[in-house]
């Protein structure tokens, strides 16, 4: 795909879609990772003399104006991070916005209002896409986190303007793309999280590529049960047991080493104060619930990580939000941090939140800014926001 580095933007109005869908509390941005991740593109455009018109969604306002979902606090934080005034409009298109853009000097940065305040955004409405396009001469998509959405500001607009990728978009596609198409080996995928259902696509796609597949988190217990062990009150998707067995069989067929927990931390309640104990996987008591992998499993998983050249991690090993059940997830994060010879790719969402929580973010090779987007990419799906960009 063409990149923002391939084109001349001097004096041009650039509509730059970013993913500023950041967590907020009481009108303050509480995690600015995604804002920081977009800075290289914004700085590049500004330094090259473009009029930088930024657009993003925030939350899911469902086509209506929701006061708490205005991008005003984001503009303020961005302004501080850039060390430069960032004006913000109360709309995302229309005459008032055009007038504001008319006052911009080369290098100026403007942030439009939340594009999801308009019902046409998520419907990928052609009129709305045109209205966005009318604001600019060039379209840059740097919103990797929203690239799996075919919306007016991610896909539709690209039909009307020269459309190129931003630097963050480029980096994400480069790292994830190389990992899947030309991985260094041994290549290990660690798949966790609550549900098998959410990880079917990614497990199926990665089984064709990896040397080791490690599973953990709530989804592991459907595999454990499918292999004939009792799992007490642990999470179970009964309708996915056959599928789970078929993955284990496919792994064997392909020579992929398949790792499941051999011991677990069980609790008599889903809470920090619960009674807990470590048991072998064959001995989960009937009215207890497994909420984390156990110490033996941690050791095995740590060794696999240490001996891998590339690891992709998507999904926690346990209920890491509660300290009592965070050891498994922390062990994975720590092992990745310690394995300096291992290239570590963290899928966005919960795994990214986990490495943040354990203060290990700066030790990872790449943390994706996309949750759903990185998952769909790892499933081998084409991302509409990327497909819409001009080819080189
Ligand atoms: C995300 O946070 O994963 C992206 O910003 C996409 O948000 P969405 O799931 O509301 O489309």
TrEMBL record:
Binding site for substrate: 19-21, 34, 57-60, 116, 149
Binding-site residues for ATP, renumbered to this chain: 199, 321, 348-351
Catalyzed reaction equations: (2R)-3-phosphoglycerate + ATP = (2R)-3-phospho-glyceroyl phosphate + ADP
Gene3D superfamilies referenced in this protein's UniProt entry, alphabetically: Phosphoglycerate kinase, N-terminal domain
UniProt entry tagged with the keyword Transmembrane helix: no
Phosphothreonine PTM positions: 297
UniProt KW keywords: ATP-binding, Cytoplasm, Glycolysis, Kinase, Nucleotide-binding, Phosphoprotein, Transferase
Pathway: Carbohydrate degradation; glycolysis; pyruvate from D-glyceraldehyde 3-phosphate: step 2/5
Record keyword ATP-binding present: yes
Entry superkingdom: Bacteria
InterPro entries in the record: Phosphoglycerate_kinase, Phosphoglycerate_kinase_CS, Phosphoglycerate_kinase_N, Phosphoglycerate_kinase_sf
EC numbers, comma separated: 2.7.2.3
Annotated positions of the Phosphoserine modification: 181
GO MF annotation: an example: kinase activity
Subcellular location field: Cytoplasm
Location, primary (coarse class): cytoplasm
Quaternary structure (record): Monomer.
Family: Belongs to the phosphoglycerate kinase family.
Alphabetical list of PANTHER family matching this protein: PHOSPHOGLYCERATE KINASE, PHOSPHOGLYCERATE KINASE 1, CHLOROPLASTIC-RELATED
Annotated protein name in UniProt: Phosphoglycerate kinase
Organism the protein comes from: Mesobacillus maritimus
Gene that this sequence comes from: pgk
